[in-house]
Amino acid sequence: MSKSNITSAELNFLVFRYLQESGFTHTAFSMGYEAGLNNSEIDGNLVPTGALITIVQKGLQYIEMEANLSDGETEEEDFSLLQPLELISNGVDELQEIIKKRKRDKMEGEKEKEKGKGKEGVGEQERHAGGEKERDKHERDRDHVRERDREREERDKEKEKQHLDFSDKARQSEDRSGSGKSQKKRRFFLGTDSAGVEPMDATQPPSEISNSEVTILEGHSSEVFACAWSPAGSLLASGSGDSTARIWTIPEGPCGVQMQAMSLHSHVLKHFKGRVNEKSKDVTTLDWNVEGTLLATGSYDGQARIWGRDGELKNTLIKHKGPIFSLKWNKKGDLLLSGSVDKTAIVWDTKTWECRQQFEFHSAPALDVDWRNNNTFATCSTDHMIYVCKVGETRPIKAFYGHQGEVNAIKWDPTGNLLASCSDDGTAKIWSLKQDKFVYDFKDHIKEIYTIRWSPTGMGTSNPNQQLILASASFDSTIKLWDIDQGRLLHSLAGHKQPVYSVAFSPNGEYLASGSLDQCLHIWSAKEGKILRTYRGGGGIFEVCWNKEGDKLAACFSNNTVCVMDFRK
């Protein structure tokens, strides 16, 4: 019998996809980069979710069947199930010996049972009657088992119904469909861990946002990983695994059925020449300049591209040797900062579009960058380090060490005095240039923290009289709000069931939007820590963002869509 072969490149891609789907984000990127998967001809769109697991399961089944079938056996013979560990740790010959031994043991056991059945002088009728009784007994036993299984199933269904009823009351959410998958952000199911978390008040359920209130933007052919509103006008940018970004024009007026009926216009920003499915061109990050006139996109091919608001490609910035994970314009708009898997950060001059300076301080991939002011910025990496750098300086002006895991994100507060960081070590830390050690070390999360956001409140903002808050979103399915003045936990938001990958404060700082792999978008009261509104989409959510007015909210999903909805309290 001919056997299908799998190449090392195909196996590498399957492992790469498994790591993505299991939440080992940075490991997946490192492997993909080192294995050269960006040059692979494999079309990832044709590889289904969970492909590696499916192949392994089928392989185990094949080994089991091969071990159970020999030349002299027929289909009527017993099919002895083997344990997965036995299938993995033994060859076919050893498995056949295990099965033969179990069959011999079974036959001997049956012979022992036969010895106790009847006596030599029992007539045919009695034996027949005895056989009938034995069959009746077996039938009763089987009926009893079936009845017990039915009762167990009904109990499980009732428990599930009660759980769904509670979920409906607490979140007013719909049935889930689909599954989330992301090339930059991904994960396996992580159940909500309620340790130290006060339960939501189910007596005051949030208001559900129905599909009729939402405008769904369709056009991408793969997961949408990033979205961002233009600071000027009603333009929304989205970046996808289909090697394109799009700039959508969102008309004025309420979202929903009426807007959906319009022919919504979008500019398609192609990151490829020729083949549509070049996975090396996946759009990993995007950012508008402060005027909203230029959009910068970062790609898995290591190139940054600059686009006009009409979708015209202005420039391609080529110097990185690995995927770009983060792109940020400074407020002045004269410099663009990029961080890459190649371990470096580059400052680009936006007048000449040339590399102003390349910073090579990290010993591992750079995961995030953020400007402190127009010429000073911070970078973080999988090497556990954070560096604060200044344009023109050849060495970091500050190095922060304290995390025990990969540092996933960094953000300066509105004044530029405090730097927040979050890590795979499960902590969020607050740093100051005035000292080497962290100012605060927040340890209440029990799993990796993926992202953080400062509220647009306090000194240096348009909401100076409101309290400054830091939000942290974690793989433990919770969001935590921190009082920075007191260095304490304000609220633990436990409305999600799976990892939370994005949070965003409304422009007035009163509300927080969160998006999770559980397909739910929640809008919270930052003051009360309660869910006000909920929308359940058709896939995992990778990013959420508010428009500048704070009356519209966008979210991008794993089912290739972008959703826009209104928010009016």
UniProtKB/TrEMBL annotation:
An annotated Gene Ontology molecular function: transcription corepressor activity
Q: Name one GO cellular component term.
A: histone deacetylase complex
**Lineage: superkingdom:** Eukaryota
Cross-referenced InterPro entries = Ebi-like, LisH, WD40/YVTN_repeat-like_dom_sf, WD40_PAC1, WD40_repeat_CS, WD40_repeat_dom_sf, WD40_rpt
Record keywords, A-Z: Nucleus, Repeat, Transcription, Transcription regulation, WD repeat
Q: Where is this region: Disordered?
A: 103-208
Start and stop residues of the WD repeats? 217-250, 276-307, 317-358, 400-441, 442-492, 493-534
> Gene3D superfamilies recorded for this chain?
1.20.960.30, YVTN repeat-like/Quinoprotein amine dehydrogenase
Q: What biological processes does GO assign it? A: regulation of transcription by RNA polymerase II
The record's SUPFAM superfamilies line, in alphabetical order, gives: WD40 repeat-like
Q: Where in the cell is it found?
A: Nucleus
- Compositional bias, Basic and acidic residues, is annotated for 105-178
- A Pfam family per the record: WD40
Is Flavoprotein set as a keyword in this record? no
Query: What protein name applies here?
Result: F-box-like/WD repeat-containing protein TBL1XR1
The protein's organism comes out as Rhynchospora pubera
Highest lineage ranks of the organism?
A: Eukaryota, Viridiplantae, Streptophyta, Embryophyta, Tracheophyta
